[in-house]
Amino acid sequence: MEALRPDDPRRIGGHRLLGRLGAGGMGQVYLGRSPGGLLLAVKVVHAHLAEDADFRRRFGREAAAARSVGGAFTAPVVDADPGADPPWLATAFLPGLPLDEAVAAHGPLPAPAVFALGAGLAEALVSVHRAGVVHRDLKPANVMLAPDGPRVIDFGIAHATEASAVTRTGHAIGSPGFIAPEQARGERTGPAADVFALGAVLVFAATGTGPYGQGPPHLLVYRAVHEPPRLGAVPDPGLRELAAGCLAPDPGARPTPERLLELLAPLVPEETDLHGLGWLPEPVAAAIARAGAETPVIAAGRTRLYEGGLGAFTRRRVLALGGAGAATALAGAGAAALLWPEDEPAAPAPARPVTGAGAAPPSPKPTGEGKVLWRRFTGDEYLISSPAVAGGAVFVGSEKGDLLAFDARTGRPRWRYSAGARVSSWPAVAGGVVYVGGSDGDVHAVDARTGRVKWRRPAGRTGTNTLVAGGLVFAGNDPVHALGADDGSPRWQSRGGTSYVSHRTAAGGVLYVPRSKSLAALDASTGRVRWEYRMSKGAGGAVVSGGVVYCGDFQGNQVHAIDARTGERRWAYATAGPVTARPQVANGLVFVGDRDSNVFALAAADGTMRWQKQIDGHVQGDPALAGGMLYVSAGVYSDGALYAVEAATGRVVWRFRAAKGTESSPVVAGGIVYFGCKDGYLYALDVRGGPGTVPPSG
């Protein structure tokens, strides 16, 4: 949970707000406390949606419908005010473990547990449909395994049955791989669509994957409409037969939830009690119990998060029903407890000069195994420049116009160079010289040891990243300028359109330059265009490995694999959102992040998806890959955390959240992750292991 920000409300509808839980497409979610002391997840609708009269009417109708849903295996809407400015909705706070994360961490469930889960979900659908509501997005992430049994959550796109048609023809709502064929085709969607989704969820619980395999969303939708479900991996014949009935292409041929209960009841072990954890495998039950133990409690007018001293990253989702959707609360695993006053948010860390005396403000603690080695205040209110590490030093630019150098091991300041203009770019280091571009268009070459300028040359429109390769410095974006690294002498200028200098790449004597609708391969020594690969709208960052260029199309929502010699396409993969970050490649996999909060691992040979993980925030900056771990920065306007993701599996190992979120790209050197944050600090996280968190040095 994150502390309230200065512009956040302190009360909504009489409920006191205690902190931020997360954000989604519909609004911001807060942890709240009712006047009677009940913990709530309070969803406040985004202002731009609140201004839409049609949205308000739909939100009011769906909130009223959701409030009428009862039953043991759903979660209640406690309060709502669709007419407020802005509209809001409050639901019960649910600790637990989502089904998708339980299966990812502990493997598929045994058949008896799947039958028990199916019975609980069927009973939940009976309650939902009895209230005249169709859920329309039942999927593993929306099934919460709670300490008191399974719960169906997230009615974010649920609709009353009398208004269940999809908004526009051809615009289906739901999650590919779990939506019914009629829903995918944009036809009217009734209760039978929820039964289809329930069957798909049971297949996932039993096998670890949905009935239509893995792949990009459009492929999963195509399979649901045109292909039979893939049930060969379902181990139990009875479960396989039941799932096949739920997944029938004809809605009329699927069983009702009431009929499902009749079919499942004889298959559930008699001693099973769904209002506890005994029906689940021991590792899953233990993880859920730990999540329940972390639930905030109210004591002496304060909210305290007891985090239990757990040794591993634990994720806890908090329910927000109705038109609001589900919020995600990430509960950190560590020995310390966070204590915030009831009436005031935790104060942000005060600004400190780089060399100032006195005690440092308290350092944020990472969740899991990343440990704060040191942090240094740069003198800025926020830091968005990405660092560079070389020769035992870390170099980073500042918005106030400085290039700063710190000791990589201790964080001790080494020197400060005044560029005279904002430096938000990545520094580039080669041959004992740091090269950086200023917002005034100049490139600065600075001695890495002393901080003294060696030369300074204009390079047109720059201010973003410089690149050094083959004795040349590449800067500017319209055109690209190539300067001699030793003296700054002009060598050549490119032709043929604006480039995006933040993502240039050089390899094998070739400079790969993203342009507005293409990726251009230029001869690094002359600037001559070797080939140009057309994209739908705009190229993002590129990386070269094994004779192949991997590049994102940040407006076309694709990742491209291009032959580095010929410029011919090898393959393309459709992502959920824009790919703004540079891919990373290792061990036959291509790692990609998009602005829809997804991190993918694709097979480098053919683009087949190996795993996909959703974080709580769009991917900001380029991920870093080291030691089998992918370090991903989430955007400051969402979760704002730095994530450590296991490269082989996609499992989130830990996350670190600073006071105001990350924005720079992380850099890893010698087992230490360096990154800048919007609180103005440069951070060094030790990821090599070891005892405890080292206190910050100031």
UniProtKB/TrEMBL annotation:
<dbReference type="InterPro" id="IPR011009">
    <property type="entry name" value="Kinase-like_dom_sf"/>
</dbReference>
<dbReference type="InterPro" id="IPR018391">
    <property type="entry name" value="PQQ_b-propeller_rpt"/>
</dbReference>
<dbReference type="InterPro" id="IPR008271">
    <property type="entry name" value="Ser/Thr_kinase_AS"/>
</dbReference>
<dbReference type="InterPro" id="IPR015943">
    <property type="entry name" value="WD40/YVTN_repeat-like_dom_sf"/>
</dbReference>
<dbReference type="InterPro" id="IPR000719">
    <property type="entry name" value="Prot_kinase_dom"/>
</dbReference>
<dbReference type="Pfam" id="PF13360">
    <property type="entry name" value="PQQ_2"/>
</dbReference>
<protein>
    <recommendedName>
        <fullName>Protein kinase domain-containing protein</fullName>
    </recommendedName>
</protein>
<keyword id="KW-0067">ATP-binding</keyword>
<feature type="binding site">
    <location>
        <position position="43"/>
    </location>
    <ligand>
        <name>ATP</name>
    </ligand>
</feature>
<dbReference type="InterPro" id="IPR002372">
    <property type="entry name" value="PQQ_rpt_dom"/>
</dbReference>
<dbReference type="InterPro" id="IPR011047">
    <property type="entry name" value="Quinoprotein_ADH-like_sf"/>
</dbReference>
<dbReference type="Pfam" id="PF00069">
    <property type="entry name" value="Pkinase"/>
</dbReference>
<dbReference type="InterPro" id="IPR017441">
    <property type="entry name" value="Protein_kinase_ATP_BS"/>
</dbReference>
<feature type="region of interest" description="Disordered">
    <location>
        <begin position="346"/>
        <end position="370"/>
    </location>
</feature>
<keyword id="KW-0547">Nucleotide-binding</keyword>
<feature type="domain" description="Protein kinase">
    <location>
        <begin position="15"/>
        <end position="268"/>
    </location>
</feature>
